[in-house]
Amino acid sequence: MSYKIRTERTQKPRSGMALGGIGAGWFEIRQDGTTANWNIFNNAPLGHGPLLPILEFVPHSYLFFVAKWQYEGEEPRMKLFQIEESHGAASLVSHEIQYIFPWLTGVDTIEFEATFPFATLKFSADDMPFEAELNAWSPFIPFDEKNSALPGAVFDFKITSKADKKLKITLAACQRNMVAYDRPDRYYTAEAVDGENCRSFMHSVGHVEANHVSFGTMGITSLSADSRCYLGWEHPHPYYERFLGEDLFPEVSDVDGRNKVDKETGKMRINNNRCWSTIAVQRELNSGAGFEHTFIASWNFPNNYARDTTKFTGRDNATFDPSRNEGHYYNNFFSSSAEAGEYIAAHHADLKSRSQAFVDAYYDSDAPDYVLDQVASNLNTMVTSSWFTREGHFGIVEGMAPAASFAGLSTTDVAMYGGVMYAALFPGLSRQVNRDYAGFQNANGSVAHSIRKNFAVMDKSEGTSNRLDLPAQHAFMTLRDAFWCNDRDYLKEMYPSAKAAVEYVLTHRDMNKDGLPDMEGIMCSYDNFPMFGVASFVAGQFIVALKALAEAAELLNEKEDVAKYSALYERGRKRFEDQLWNGEYFRLCKDENRNPPLIDEGCLSDQLISQWAAHQVGFGHLYDECKVKTALKNILKHNYRSWQGLRNCQWPQDKFFHQIDKDIWVDQANTCWTGVELEMASFLIYEGMLDEGLMLIKNVDDRYRKNGMYFDHQEYGGHYFRPMSAWSIINAMAGLGIKHGEYTFAPKLNRADVKLFFAAPDTYGHFIRTSGSVKIKTAGGELKIKKLTVELAAPAASAKVSVPGDVRIEGKILTVDFGKEISAQEIIITLG
């Protein structure tokens, strides 16, 4: 009979959930129990060190877990908690696991469920007389930068016997020593470290400079003081043989056997590139009994060097500046992997409960599950693509491929979308991004396109850019953060930078002096098709920046600026409509100064990104509301394909798709940018077009599930920054706008009784509305609020508020003015 098997798309692992901390490095755990894409060693693509030689160092054996079981008087067996790869499983190469060590086999099935930052794997096999469940996670706690940036991953195991007699089980965590993987002159070191109620081993190397890019320590902490360590093994003989045959797991250090004296130099060096250590616990279980145990993988690789900005390349890992070690934020707290592991061990319960509390609150919502899942999948990028230095500088790498990262950190035009996520959950990091870009701002007010992983020196190719969307984006994001946090000191600090960016456009980039930027070709985020004159994408963002600048000036009592920018805003939005509205939508661009005048009727999905931005800060409609809604309907009509998604831009003359000029290096018009699709979904929801917004989200969610790339959103590389715009969906569902301590809730679900999660600087919680009451209840942090406006399910005659304030009701709109900023955990409004 022939070999016959059925394979389905979902069975092939293509991406996994990240384990690690913000800016701390990461690796992913996949549905088959393996790990992949290790980026903890300052290695490419995230860092500047050499790529890992994955043919020699197979990633699925960097970290793995094994259980040995034995009945009294019977032969022991072992199980690898992976559906193993064909080669290199559990460290065994050349002589593979199936031949050289048949006592050890992989599991038959794994039930995998991931809800960032937690992944649960349930392992089973026909010959395994116990149930095994793993909960893998790393701390992720909004507003807590330190504990969300820890260099570690936690593995909580639960083992339950199914046997009808006493069962002996040894649970072991195994790790490969990858320190200075790129230095053949290294020699291996390993040591056991006793901690309080825990025990660790720590890997490192000798003969490598302390400032070498991949030098550091890595290890595993076991949350049991009776854990035993076998240090420095590489071959089944004698390690696996002793593990299998000895009743008590061996307490051994064989690391010297992994090294040799070089005959030519007389120095110690590695014997080969293979060195592992194991830490294990042993338990005896009666029938039906079980135990829980935790391992923590931790690391410390302090030499995170800045990019060499003198050597331009689009690949940011190509070169680095050895004179500038930016380090990691975690280096402020730990000097070794063992210290990090012991810290996580000591705070395990608190870190897990606070991380879980965020997840529980987030999913305690009436929003559809697929909406919550899709948004949460993009939280993964906060770990995979983040750069968080010892001094506190922060950014998200724009995109990463397996061998390289692209562009820089929190690239301005992409941050306009993706930055909304960290602005809501880690507002201090967002403000730092704005400060760093303000620090690199040119004397004429122009704004850098991207910071190339170097916070001391700006790359000349990035510091002076002709991109015309950047100044308005910098101004808006800077002021949005000030409005959201209601931080007057921050506003005073950053107002000059925002003003300078706007003035740069008015002085240098508004040739016809109509108060709007003049496009002259390819010079914005859509860098593969040209725009001229007044362009909806660019001019709109300048208009919302003018609106924000006028409001900021009023808060700071800058009366002349209030008058100037208010007038420019009113003039600009009128010209926007006059020049761009074509009866269906706001056209791509119009340049009436050309002879003949140029009119481009392209229908850009992003033509009203400015209105989406305005909703974030409760500005209301910048343009005629009827035209806005009509444009959105026609964007879907022209650009949406159910089999593909929302295309970026289509033209009336297009038949099936837009023809691309031979000189264009990539097709942007006919393709879908997930970050734009998710931004557009939230925009549709803000506008009350709930079904249409949900349609876009469902399309994206289905595509990424089918393609197996659920935790790896693609655009210019993977783990792309722009799709972090997904977070705006959460506040759009609640109809939430925030500015100057004023919160407006206008929930978009079509029901009277609704419960929705929301996040704002310093707090997250729930908006809860019934026919008789409204409740704002925090689940984390503290709500700081000055004024509350709520859209009720129906008009109310009266209202009683749990916190003193001036109450006004106009139809379905209820407003409570507290007179000053207050701090509250809960606000209850009882309707009469």
Report the total helices. 18
Instruction: Classify the helix fraction into a percent range.
Output: 25-40%
Judged by helices, strands and strand pairing, the structural class is alpha+beta
What proportion of the residues form beta strands (DSSP E)? Answer: 25-35%
Structure notes:
With 832 residues, this protein is an alpha+beta fold. It has 4 domains: 9-349, Distorted Sandwich (Beta-galactosidase, Chain A, domain 5), CATH 2.70.98.40; 364-454 and 673-731, no CATH class; 466-623, Glycosyltransferase, CATH 1.50.10; 739-831, Maltose phosphorylase, domain 3 (Sandwich), CATH 2.60.420. The protein is built from 18 helices and 43 strands. The strands form 11 sheets. The protein has an 8-stranded antiparallel beta sheet. The longest helix has 22 residues, at 559-580. It is globular. The model has no long low-confidence stretch (mean pLDDT 96).
How would you describe this structure in keywords?
Beta-galactosidase, Chain A, domain 5; 4 domains; 26% helix; Glycosyltransferase; globular; seven-stranded mixed β-sheet; 43 strands; 832 residues
Which helices and strands, and how do they pair?
Elements: E1 17-21, E2 25-29, E3 35-36, E4 63-70, E5 77-80, H1 97-100, E6 104-106, E7 109-115, E8 118-124, E9 130-137, E10 152-161, E11 167-176, E12 187-195, E13 198-206, E14 217-222, E15 228-233, H2 239-245, E16 252-253, E17 259-261, E18 268-270, E19 276-285, E20 290-300, E21 305-307, E22 320-325, H3 337-346, H4 348-363, H5 369-377, H6 381-384, E23 386-388, E24 394-401, E25 404-409, H7 412-425, H8 427-439, H9 460-463, H10 470-485, H11 488-508, E26 519-521, E27 531-535, H12 536-555, H13 559-580, E28 589-591, E29 598-600, E30 603-604, H14 609-616, H15 625-639, E31 640-641, E32 645-646, E33 649-650, H16 674-686, H17 690-706, H18 727-733, E34 737-739, E35 742-745, E36 754-760, E37 763-769, E38 773-781, E39 783-791, E40 799-801, E41 806-810, E42 813-824, E43 826-831
Parallel strand pairs: 5-6, 15-16, 35-39
Antiparallel strand pairs: 1-2, 2-3, 4-5, 4-11, 7-8, 8-9, 9-10, 10-20, 11-19, 12-13, 13-14, 14-20, 15-19, 17-18, 21-22, 23-24, 24-25, 26-27, 27-28, 28-29, 30-33, 31-32, 34-35, 36-37, 37-38, 38-43, 39-42, 40-43, 41-42
